[in-house]
Task: structure prediction
Amino acid sequence: MTDLAVSHGILDQPGTVAFLVIFGMAVILFFVFRSMAKHLRKVQMAARAEAEEAARAREASGDTGADFVTGADTGGAIGDTRGGNRGVAP
Result:
């Protein structure tokens, strides 16, 4: 009888090819995430420099920046002068 179902190569073993594919993807993702982190650092540094430049420009013009929103939640929609409406009909 011939032995057709027996495999003798290392790539013929179950799971070897799947392991190599997953390992290859992990290596590629390592470099992708490393590159993404580098680009995000660049963007963050540019945004910080832009904010500092805007602050210096405001300071030089004598504007205190008191009319800018400080990020506090006013509770209402944009342009809503009533305060804590939160979108509920009166």
